[in-house]
């Protein structure tokens, strides 16, 4: 995929699913920003999808 299209796809997914995410906000309040970010990357299905899309940029 073209670099620009990959970035647009990731942005689209984040705008649709991640903006205002209850789980991220809950974890951020309870366990901190770092934990919430790590949760999104390693355990959230949307975060895993974004991570796989990001690997296409390399």
TrEMBL record:
<keyword id="KW-0862">Zinc</keyword>
<dbReference type="InterPro" id="IPR019718">
    <property type="entry name" value="DUF2602"/>
</dbReference>
<dbReference type="GO" id="GO:0008270">
    <property type="term" value="F:zinc ion binding"/>
</dbReference>
<protein>
    <submittedName>
        <fullName>Zinc-finger domain-containing protein</fullName>
    </submittedName>
</protein>
<keyword id="KW-0479">Metal-binding</keyword>
<dbReference type="Pfam" id="PF10782">
    <property type="entry name" value="zf-C2HCIx2C"/>
</dbReference>
<keyword id="KW-0863">Zinc-finger</keyword>
């Amino acid at each position: 995929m073209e670099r620009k299209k990959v970035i647009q796809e990731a942005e689209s997914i984040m705008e649709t699913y991640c903006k205002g995410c209850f789980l991220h906000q809950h974890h951020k309040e309870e366990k901190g920003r770092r934990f919430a970010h790590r949760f999104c990357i390693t355990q959230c299905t949307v975060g895993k999808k974004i991570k796989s899309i990001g690997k296409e940029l390399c």
